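Query form — protein Ubiquitin carboxyl-terminal hydrolase 47

QUESTION: What is the three-dimensional structure of this chain?
INPUT:
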Amino acid sequence: MVRVNDSNDTNTSSEHEDSSSNYVRLAGNGLPGGEQQASSSGVAAAPTSENSSPGRSNQLALPSSSSAATTSSSQYAIPLDENSHRYVGLVNQAMTCYLNSLVQSLYMTPEFRNAMYEWEYVQLPAHIKEQRKKAEQSIPCQLQKLFLLLQTTENDSLETKDLTQSFGWTSNEAYDQHDVQELCRLMFDALEHKWKGTKHEKLIQDLYRGTLEDFVACLNCGRESVKTDYFLDLSLAVKPFGAMHAYKSIEEALSAFVQPELLNGSNQYMCENCKSNQDAHKGLRITQFPYLLTIQLKRFDFDYNTMHRIKLNDKMTFPDVLDLNEYVSKEKRPAPTPSATTTTSPPKSAWKTIPAKDDDDDLDLGSPNAKRSTPGNQSPNRYSSRGDENVIVGQPIDHESVESIMKTNGEEVYELFSVMVHSGNAAGGHYFAYIKNLDQDRWYVFNDTRVDFATPSEVEKSFGGHPSGWNQSNTNAYMLMYRKIDRKRNASFILSNQLPQHIKDSREKWKRLEQEAEEERLRKLSLIQVYVNINYPFPSYVMLPEKKQLDLTPQKYQIADDFCEYKIEISREQPIKSVFQCAFDFFNERARAYNLPFSKNNSRLIYVEHGQLAMDFRSPKDMEKKLRSVFSSHHGEPISMYGVNFILDVRIGSSFFNIDIQNRMTIKVQRVDIGKKTTANELTIVISGDEKMLKVKQWIGTQFRDDIRDVLEARVVLEAASSRCEFMLIDSQHNSKDFRSLISQHMGHATPTLYYDGGMSTMITEESKEATIADRKLPFEKSQMYQILDRKCFSTFVKVRLPSQDEVEKAASTKNAFQGPSWEETVAIMKAEDRLWNEPRAAAVEVMSTVSRAETTDAVTEVDDEPIPSGRGSTASMRSVSMDDIEGDIGISGSLCNNTPQMSPCVSEGDDIDEKALDGKSQLMADYMQKTSPEFYYNRDPQSHVNKNLKIALNEETPSEALSAVSSGQSTLVPSTSNQALSSMARSAQDEAFDAKITTVFSHENYHKLDVDSRMRVVEFKKWVAEQLNMDKDQFVIVKHASDDGSDTGYETNFMDDETVSAAFQSCFISIKLRAPLKQDEKMIQVILFDMLENQRDNWKPLFELPVSQSTVIGDILLQCIRMYNEVYGEELTPKAVRLRDVSTTGHYNAKAILNPNDTLEKRGYSWCSHIYMQIVTDEAVLGKPGDPILVRRFRPSTVEVSPTHEVLVDSNAENPVLSFMEALTKVSGIPLERLAITEPKEFNWQKWPFVKSRLDMLENKVAFAKDLHLNYPSPKDFVEKTGSRVLYYKDSEEEPRILTEDERKQIKIKENGQSANANRRKERPLRIQMSSVCEG
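ANSWER: The structure tokens for Ubiquitin carboxyl-terminal hydrolase 47 are given below.
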């Protein structure tokens, strides 16, 4: 083997590294690998057929004393492999550089590559497509294919998509970067899974598996408990946990890996032999290193101070030759079974001589320490006698030195051949690899598509820790691969001319597949997209075989959808007849379904270019022409997948219209069926512009098989271009005019649309014929034809989603929530019952009276007001009244205020409610409802309104059934007085008006596509929706959606009733929400359940939404929340058990947290409609007691613990509220007042919920606690106002603090930082390889 010298003096490595004259910089960008050696010939020295052999030479490669290459600045060397073949790179799909580095490392492992070539993929008998699919899913098959192409292809780089497809990956997974060591393990697992039952079943274990023992050794008796385990790679720490300095080398990290832990003190080991707790050593010892050793350097760590992942860029050296003899356990013991635990007796542990840890040793922190006992306690091997700073890496192997090490120390000597490097930080980066060709003994850099020579200095830079230069020190080795130096086992690569026969056969097969793939690619390039539309005069009816007429007009829109355009991808080399046959078969199948006359002899294909009918194909000769013949020669060949348009013209008349005529004009014709009040589909016709109008009428009539008399009697109407609603009747006085001049006068250059009411003999029924004859006698402006055309011109499509029956039932479950007395009325009811209602304190919210439900009827009568027609509840005034001193519990029912709608708001997801749970309604509510109009509310039978909903819309109920339901007095969802005049007589007229303005095009469950008159008013459309839902139009709102399918949340619209549909929601998607519309000054406010024990506000449960205005009284909202909670969740609450809170979303917030029920929302300022938090009080210590609640937590220095958040009540009207607060704390905690210390309010500046304080900071007095706060607080009267929204901490100032160990301190810090860590990090997709994709060959 010819070796290339890197310098003239091989003994001076520094001269070698500094000899930059032997290297030139390659052009192009990239990470490392920019330097390479140049030869005079421009080609790097490589093994030739004369000096190469299948096996490696007996002695390791030694540097030659003479140079085999000289410097040439004018030529660049090409890196060639052992076959004199150029190295091939791998394409980075997106972020698959980690995959590329691993694949190249495995490819450059002789034993692994050779084994992949020896494996033969056996195809089971199956269809060729099935065989190909199984091969595509086979990971070893695709890996073998990739290896072979890397060795033989002439391409500069290869794709890895076939390999990742065999993993089961989607294209999106190429955009996720993962850990190369994790990928290596998953790939090995997949290969082992595939190779079960074959001779390669143990390949991964034989090459990569090592053995270690997990042991516990008693230091008293020497008895050991041993568990054997296996490893495929060793993960070595770069920096021990909590240490300041990193390990200097992998030898030092290996020593720490096998360093046992001393179990003593409270952590002693229970020795079964000694029958007592004893000091012991617990650790790992390696009993056998694998043949191929993979080492992962754990450079990615977690910083518990910042709660972020970090990368350790510290320098860690690794040598070319690694002596592992001192790390192998020398004891010989029977090999236990995997995962079995065995116990052995003396000889005593090899670690028995390790002394106990002294005070200077920092073993507990894991940092490197010179005092540490290591196997042999020797300095790490550096492959030579040089100092630690002169580690040899990236150099040719010194065979004599290696032989000396093996003779002196043992056979466990390993040679480095792969360094996988990560460049970047913990959030992401780039992988590449330095890999040595073990046959050539030369290093290369594999960086995705780029393969280049690598110098020793470049490999050395991957140690990391450089203070400056290359990528600012964030580029360093992450995974290393070593091979054991064993002359008998070390293999050389199989040369290309010595590949196994099945690999050669596979190579030919893959070449053929690549050729087929290329042909397929070229075929796809020749493809064009062909769109074919039909030109066919659809009749209004057809005759069935049993001589019955089938009316097609109700299916007009369905027919239009069924006969939509036909699409096909076809080669431009195919004949026209291929398109014709496919299109005819497509439309003929649909025509047979409707019993329509359809004949191939009466059909032709017309090519459409730029909207104009260019040429037709009808004769056999025309049909044989290739598709490419339709392209204009001066425009050239179109690109791949170019769109081509055709028309399949099917006539029922005697002849086709002529395409190739002079002065031709294209017109659109639509037949009008007067009897059915509709228009047929659009026909395209070509005529001569020089023809007289009478001749044009005749041409139009022939398309519908009309004779000359029918043509003369028929009406032709032109739709003018100047206005959508302007029509011109072309009567007999126009018959002699030139068609082009007539059209130009009224249409300009636009394509004219003509409406024709003919087809009397073949297109329409006898009833329609009679209606047409009668309509022709009327003036055109008063005719039915004019109304039909007028409606068509103002037609717009609206897609609407009506509420489902479940939504209606859910809304019905909250039917009582918006009814009943207000806050003021509730107080008046209690006063009428002669209960004690003292005038309240300004900030107190208490309910302390008990009112019998049976005694409330009369009281309700006194304060009852009739509901106002708007559906907003009572007209009673909203005076500010409190319930401070009422005794007892009462179930509250009543209306919110003037701003409360009668329909339920949008309720968030909650538990399903049993009807029985809702039977126990408040008697107060029932009595109050009896005094109002009984027909205004729901029928008590829930089925009376639920089962009727949407039946008209879903075609489950006829209009007559719905009519009888309304006329019989059945209740709507939430009726109101605004539409009570709807009677059966009125409905019939209204239905007729709706039929004229709204037509259902398509319906599926709750989704409907409507053809709506765009001039229709919004109020009319609402009435139509109310008809479908069997409710009043004031009980729902229209939500407009931006998406075409209504998948977005949409936004509520406030349309004026007199707006037109065209201005409001033309051609868009709308949905109906069951809630009364908001008034101009109203907004929806969300109510969220307050949970003082949950620190994450995002986890608080949204309850429901309420409509409010700035003038809404908070007490009314409180009552409304109680009623809504009862209706939705089936639990009755009392006002004394409910508080409404403000929780600030900003840091600087000084205000009371409890909202005063006497205030209006206007008191909240600019954020009056922000979320309100509903607190359900369950603590008996504060339930029903007077006072303002303050949230507190107790800190216990003796245990370094903090209590859960709880409440104490403060008398804000006391002379000193701060003293009242401290006395409440004393009562709750038992801490004497003089020893009570409370966090100063300034400690919470710019803090938000949950106002967490660090236990360590409080223990170390970094948080200011104040004694005698009642004496020092600047303005005690403002105490509740300033601190009511915060969580205050308190403690016993004389409680003895605990002295923490360093480990305890770290654990507390980790836990605290973990609780406050940012939970919004992007969730990464896990790395996976589908085992199901590993097919059995």
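ADDITIONAL NOTE: The longest strand covers residues 413-425.
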